[in-house]
Amino acid sequence: MSIERMSAEELLGVDKFNVDEGEAHIVVKCECCLECSDKPCLYICPAQCYKLLDGKLAFDYVGCLECGTCRLACRQLGNSGVATWTYPRGTFGVSYRCG
Amino acid sequence: MDEEESDRFDAIIIGAGPAGAACAYALARAGKQVLMIERADTPGAKNVTGGRFYTYALEMLDNGLTAKAEEALERKVTHEQMMMLDGERSLCIDYGDPSFAEEGKVPESYTVLRATFDEWLSGQAEEKGAMLVCGIRVDELIERDGGIVGVRAGGDEMFADIVVAADGANSLMGQKAGLIDDVRVEHMLVGAKETIALPARTIEDRFALAAGEGASRLALGGARGVNGGVFIYTNRESISFGCVLLPSVLAQKHLSVHDLLQDVKMHPAIRPLLEGGTTIEYSAHLCPEAGLKAVPEKLFRTGFLMAGDAAGFAVNQGYTVRGIDLAILSGLAAANAIISTSVPEDVGAVYTEQLDALGVHRAMQMASRFPEIEDDPRIFAIYPKLANDIFSTVYHLDPDSRRPLYPKLKACIKGDTGFGAILKDVRKIRRVLRQGDGS
């Protein structure tokens, strides 16, 4: 295959996930984000789980690679919009086959 | 004996990565009742490395263990490469040393993938008698009379004389135990990696490797002035390609870690190495990089110890990156401490002594000033440009030029990269490199 740029969605498409439909392991209070001028989450999340839609922050925990960067960056560089951050319940989330 | 007591373990280890598995291995070998609790389906399935692994740590855990690990490791590293990127240009230095993988000796380091390696190491601990449960997330620590006495996972409670938190760089357990506040974001790098499948022969041809041997390549520059670097490790039938970058600078410059990784992938000196390959995985991880500054002041309290990435035990020296070896050694140090003292209040102090004795503290101490170099824009932006300018001057053939080479070269070395400025940097680097030598 020819090496090309891949979008985050394409990259996440090759990963193995078991999405926990019953519990979001990260909860973002997007109203806090309205007042966050820097929005570090848009840049530091390798999975691009944080996006701007019509100028508003949108977050989806599906596709999260569980690195934890947003937890630190949001509190320390942003406006603490990440209200809850924990690891997914056992067996849920990403499963690396290489790592 | 009440019900709680009958379920009691000598030690509960949270996380079956290298720190947890090494700790379990050494404890079980000494006849202790050990339980490893892992939140992934299989050990390693939540873990990411660059990566490479230095074998001395396995040998310290148990003499001869590396030979058993061969199947779980990738390639013996015989080529150490350093690359400097500037725009589309690149300079690569390749140090080949077959003695790193000399016949009859334990190879110094291997490239590694964690899903395979961590599963193997925790399997070794199980063979020694440790118990492993997977697919369970530990939710809370159980505290009694000022000490940690067990863990709560789902609805279950499990008890032990000591709980070892080997739960990784983003240690929620360390926080629950009150030993760490938030890890400082400036002490962490965010890593993103693509694992790209290629046939073994193609990898060996592209990196000029003998069969079974591997290359480790670190690159400076190429991330549009963001602090950090790029890595390439050759596995048996894949290449680990990724970058580690400083989150605060990404945020400040409004550059995304995902975009920068894709930029570097398309670099004219990188893309041909990967061409024809298929991306089989995309992974991400936080990496402690600040040496001792990232290590919590206190790594223990009664009934509780922290080891591995959770304790900040990782080292990024620019030319080499270490974490798995320090994880194993800190796991071993924890086990030695637990084995050697029966007084719970004393375990922490013995753990500290063991970290010293096994060289973990020394490694952290020696690396603690490296970020001063790594976070200096001169290193990851100005010098890659200077190096490329010099080589461009040397190799660019201008048939009309009457200027000898020396004045042309001298023209590269001016201003920001004048002799005076370079000398100042050399002195600074010397100071950092001398850190920890006791002189």
Mean pLDDT of chain B: 92
* N- to C-terminal distance of chain B: 57 Å
Task: Using the coordinates above, name the CATH class of the domain at 23-86 in chain A.
Answer: Alpha Beta
Task: Please compute the radius of gyration of chain A using only Cα atoms.
Answer: 14 Å
- Show the largest interface: A-B, 45 and 64 residues
CATH class assignment of the largest domain in chain B: Alpha Beta
How many angstroms does the end-to-end distance of chain A come to?
22 Å
Number of strands of chain B: 19
Strand order of the largest sheet of chain A: 1-6
Residues in helices of chain A, as a percent range? 10-25%
What general outline of chain B do the C-alpha atoms trace? globular
Mean pLDDT of chain A: 95
Provide keyphrases for this structure.
heterodimer; A: 99 residues; alpha+beta; Alpha-Beta Plaits; two-stranded antiparallel ribbon; 4 helices; globular; B: 439 residues; alpha/beta; FAD/NAD(P)-binding domain; 3 domains; eight-stranded mixed sheet; 17 helices
How would you describe this protein?
The complex is a heterodimer of chains A (99) and B (439). Chain A is an alpha+beta fold. Chain A has a domain at 23-86: Alpha-Beta Plaits, CATH 3.30.70. Chain A has four helices and six strands; from the N terminus they run αββααββαββ. Chain A has helices spanning 8-13, 30-34, 41-44, 69-77; strands at 16-18, 26-28, 50-53, 56-59, 82-85, 93-95. In chain A, strand 3 and strand 4 form a beta hairpin. The model of chain A has no long low-confidence stretch (mean pLDDT 95). Chain B has 439 residues and is α/β, with parallel strands linked by helices. Chain B folds into three domains: 3-73 and 114-182 and 291-358, FAD/NAD(P)-binding domain, CATH 3.50.50; 186-288, D-Amino Acid Oxidase, Chain A, domain 2; 371-434, no CATH class. Chain B has 17 helices and 19 strands. The longest helix of chain B is centred in the C-terminal third of the chain and has 19 residues, at 377-395. Chain B is globular and about 90 Å long.
